[in-house]
Amino acid sequence: MTPDSTTSRRTFLKTSASAVAASTVLLPGAYATGNDTLRIGLVGCGGRGTGAAKQALRADPKVKLVAMCDAFPDRLQGSLGEMKNIKDIAPKIDVTPDRCFDGFDGYQKLLNCGVDVVLLCTPPGFRPLHLRAAIDAGKHVFCEKPVAVDAAGVRSVIETAKLAKEKGVSLLSGFCYRYDYGKRETVKRIHAGMIGDVAAMHITYLTSPIWHRGSNPDWSEMEYQMRNWYYFTWLSGDFIVEQHCHNMDKAAWVFRGEMPVACTGVGGRQVRTDPKFGHIYDHFAVTFEYKNGARLFSTCRQMAGCSGDVNDYVIGTKGTAQLMKHTVSPTGGAGWELGDDSYKDMYQVEHDELFAGIRAGKPINDGEAAAYSTLMAVIAREAAYTGKRLTWKDMLASKQDLSPKKYEWGPNPVSGVPMPGVYQIG
């Protein structure tokens, strides 16, 4: 069932289910080394992957990083060198040359080299494929957000999350704000009715432009796209999916998992006019509709020289709250504000709880919730791209699949910038 470099995600996702019965389930305590040391493998060695590996190594006293994988060897070696120079985690790194993997099929080699826990931190376009393979192999998984870039990927992750529950293995997503003490305390008070029923939210992610890694005449079209993955929807989902999905997830949390019924949106590409920026937008504004009449208003932007604002404003029938400021303000009675801001970093907490769950035989699985939060961002993107009102039901059932026909170096033609009123979904 190992896909080679010319196998598409479509083919793999259709055929991998047949391997489930033959896969190995990793029971709590039954680790690959035959003792109580958990062996970690990292897939995707960029900044976030390197950060996740650091946090995993600090989450448990008896863990080792034993394998790494990236499409590009230079990225892998840069990450490995950085971590080996960090005093507190260096003794926990045991990555030998024969456990360094690259290319499109490197993740399968990593899964077969005796790891117990896998950190999936590649560009999100690969997430459904890698996640299914890891769960099929019986591994505990941390996977970064978002968990997909299209409807087909979301549906795949939902099925994989169900499989993880059947196997009793962990599937913890990188929606890290759910592991932030201040956010937990704020949402707890909202759910307790301190501001009445939630009537609306306004979520914002107004920030500066992100990196661009340049070009090289020796790079193929596929390599250029993967080196600059943020600017291609099949890899990143556009920045509303890759970045603003955090706010979508916090909104889903506040709305108790209730998903919107429809949305409309606008967006465009005002400053990203150079072809080097692929085909993603630089601003979006979207309105979500809920069955009970509530509304979620979303705005995001990546532009230089503009005011920044990353917030989640909650408007209730009896008051307001702000998740990023950790305040709850009822219209009558005393308000609440988090007084202690010295609590643990949320990125570390998610790994601490992941490994604690593995040790206790109580694996965490938030894969299905992560998939739905991801779909909120996907439908928002598509509403802006098309210029049409889209329903949740239709989007979830959409045949949209943005994955390339083949995973191989060479040509990989992509569509132009989406034009509302012209662009069609999938």
Query: What is the element string, with H for helices and E for strands?
Result: HEHEHEHEHEHEHEHHHHEEEEEEEHHEH
- CATH domain class name of the largest domain: Alpha Beta
CATH architecture of the largest domain: 3-Layer(aba) Sandwich
Instruction: Provide the residue-averaged pLDDT.
Output: 93
Question: How many strands?
Answer: 15
Structural class: alpha/beta
Distance between the termini: 27 Å
Total of helices:
14
Computed over alpha carbons, the radius of gyration is 21 Å
CATH topology of the largest domain: Rossmann fold
Query: What's the arrangement of strands in the largest beta sheet?
Result: 14-13-12-11-7-10-9-8-15
Strand content: 15-25%
Proportion of helical residues: 25-40%
Catalogue the unreliable spans.
1-29
CATH homologous superfamily caption of the largest domain = NAD(P)-binding Rossmann-like Domain
Q: What features would you highlight for this structure?
A:
single chain; 426 residues; alpha/beta; Rossmann fold; Dihydrodipicolinate Reductase, domain 2; 2 domains; 6-stranded parallel beta sheet; 14 helices; 18% strand; disordered N terminus
Can you tell me about this structure?
The structure is a single chain. The strands form 2 sheets. Strands 14-13-12-11-7-10-9-8-15 form a 9-stranded mixed beta sheet. α5 (127-136) packs parallel to α6 (151-167) and α11 (245-254) packs across α13 (367-386). It folds into 2 domains: 9-175 and 349-374, Rossmann fold, CATH 3.40.50; 178-338 and 378-397, Dihydrodipicolinate Reductase, domain 2. It starts with 8 loop residues before the first helix and ends in a 29-residue tail after the last helix. Helix content is 33%, strand content 18%. Residues 1-29 have low confidence and may be disordered. It contains 14 helices and 15 strands. With 426 residues, it is an alpha/beta fold.
